[in-house]
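User: Before I run my own analysis I want an independent prediction to cross-check against. Here's the chain; please return only the structure tokens and, at the end, one sentence I can use as a sanity check.
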Amino acid sequence: MVRPLNRRACLALLGTIVVLPASAQAQQANATRRLGVLSVTAADDAIGQTRSAILVEALAAHGWKEHGNLRIDWRSGAGDRARIAGLADELIALKPDILLAVGTPPRSKSCAGAP
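Assistant: Structure tokens:
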């Protein structure tokens, strides 16, 4: 049998709901978050640089500033599958809050005949 909330319990619940988001935001504002970005293109690739700039601008528009409350660990694989795998392991070891992989690596020679 479910008992209805009494007035005190209801007010306590509402107070918790109102106060909780403010305290969560205060903790988040002081914390530096870590983003790992793995790109399959070379670091000096013009398209890759444009994508990176757009990412940084979009994050900044939402309050996430690189070298402020956000640290971005950039890794570029230059299309080399073995290197990309190693860089992915490296980024995972850094324990980012978010890991973003951008692009599709080229097909290997063993897949060249596949449709």
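Sanity check: Strands lie at 33-39, 70-76, 98-102.
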